[in-house]
Specification:
42% helix; D-Maltodextrin-Binding Protein, domain 2; globular; 21% strand; alpha/beta
């Protein structure tokens, strides 16, 4: 083979090899999609509902990986004020999300309301307390030594629980029995594990399929505590705004709202 022919063959092979990844991507579009990660800081009461939303979202958008950390909204707000490495924040109190916007730490056009939460008095199925009959007075049952709530210093559901107990006339009589979870999820775990006898927790946790049969509840009247409007934002330093927007839009879609409704959240109509 002469020099010119060898050069021609080498050139053709180089062109084919350089085009191979492009041709493969065209033939296999799922591989062409860019992998993205969305890091979410989410309020503890959303644990089971948002896990289900993430799973449904993953089926639609497998190229987007969602990594979630659950905790108290107030603690997350403090971390995000120091630019903690998250892309999206789901707060149990919309005001925390709005503060981040005012402080320039979240995109103004990213604010959204995903639901309105509710409070319940919850006891383990093992408990002898007739919470359905006694209602808020169940907190004063002689067998109750510890009442679990989220820490009102940084958890919206803890503040709401204190307000509800005061408005319903039981706070002063059971204040010395209160034990505080770092988040409403931890308060729920206190009761589930018998570390506390009874608790005031979010309806969304009590309705989770994994927990529904483990306890009994009484819904606290909505007029006993401030409206628990829950919302989120996308942080100004989000690594992939398009991927975060896709997750946000799915959460607010019909499919997302169906899931949120199952967990007791009242969702926006538009």
């Amino acid at each position: 083979m002469d020099t010119r022919l060898r050069l021609l063959v080498t050139t053709v092979i180089s062109v084919v090899l350089s085009l191979a990844p492009v041709l493969y991507a065209i033939d296999h579009p799922s591989h062409a999609a860019e992998h993205a990660v969305v890091r979410v800081a989410a309020a503890g009461d959303t644990k089971f509902a948002f896990d289900e939303i993430v799973e449904a979202f993953r089926r639609q958008r497998p190229e987007i990986e969602v990594r979630v950390t659950y905790g108290s909204s107030g603690n997350f707000y403090a971390q995000l004020s120091n630019r903690a490495p998250y892309d999206m924040f789901l707060s149990a109190d919309l005001e925390y999300a709005r503060r981040l916007i005012r402080e320039g730490r979240a995109a103004p056009d990213s604010e959204f309301v995903y639901g309105v939460g509710r409070l319940v008095v919850w006891v383990s199925r093992r408990s002898s307390i007739d919470v359905e009959k006694l209602g808020i007075e169940a907190l004063r049952d002689p067998s109750v030594r510890k009442v679990a709530i989220a820490n009102p210093a940084h958890a919206p559901y803890g503040r709401a629980a204190v307000t509800a107990m005061k408005n319903l006339g039981v706070y002063d009589r059971i204040e010395d029995r209160l034990v505080y979870g770092d988040s409403v999820m931890q308060a729920f775990q206190f009761v589930e594990s018998s570390a506390a006898d009874i608790g005031i927790v979010s309806h969304s946790l009590a309705l989770a399929p994994q927990l529904r049969d483990k306890g009994r509840l009484w819904e606290i009247p909505l007029d006993a505590y401030p409206r628990q409007e829950q919302g989120g934002v996308i942080l100004s330093w989000a690594q992939n705004r398009a991927a975060a927007d896709a997750l946000r839009n799915f959460m607010l879609s019909g499919d997302g709202k169906i899931i949120l409704h199952r967990y007791g959240f009242e969702t926006p109509q538009n």
